[in-house]
Amino acid sequence: MASEFQRKKVGGVFRAMDVDGDGLLTQADFQALAHRWTAVAGSAGPERLAAVMTGWWPVLRAASRGDDGVSLDEVLRVVDGLGDLTDAVSGTADVMFETIDLDGDGLISRSEYAVLIETWNGAPAGTDEIFPRLDLDGDGHLTRDEFRVHWTEFWAGDDPDAPGSYVFGALMD
Ligand SMILES: [Ca+2]
Ligand SMILES: [Ca+2]
Ligand SMILES: [Ca+2]
């Protein structure tokens, strides 16, 4: 069972992914998200990211009960099982990392991270508070390993104190 914290955390991302706001994730939402990502200027691999994101759609679809979309409860059931899918989760983290590494230097800068937040949420959001917490060694960048840790914590973890719980930004009520 998903905890209240997981519900809050994943619920925020669910609302960002539910592009048309009807309370269900559908293939159309995924296509809209993929479109949003392919519009990120200068990015080397948005098509690859779109393919990986679209690849999660059958996984979610399989968890839903034959209706037209996937509800938050159904997403939470999938999230419950992600502990068994750690390779797929960290693979998605790597593709996301490469997509937001706009200058291709193998690191995520503060401004590149801001692009992630804005593109994911469809609107700009402050990153001044969370970025230093995500930057575990304080060198001013996120490495691939740092990002993978946070991404996996977000999707497969349940720790309100872990920086990764806020990798998509602050949690809203
Ligand atoms: Ca929707
Ligand atoms: Ca970079
Ligand atoms: Ca760092």
Automatic annotation (TrEMBL):
Residues 5-40, 88-123, 128-157 form the EF-hand domain. InterPro entries: EF-hand-dom_pair, EF_Hand_1_Ca_BS, EF_hand_dom. GO terms for molecular function: calcium ion binding. Pfam families: EF-hand_5. Gene3D superfamilies: EF-hand. Coiled coil: none annotated. CDD domains: EFh. PROSITE patterns: EF_HAND_1, EF_HAND_2. It comes from the Bacteria. This is Ca2+-binding protein, EF-hand superfamily. It comes from Nonomuraea wenchangensis.
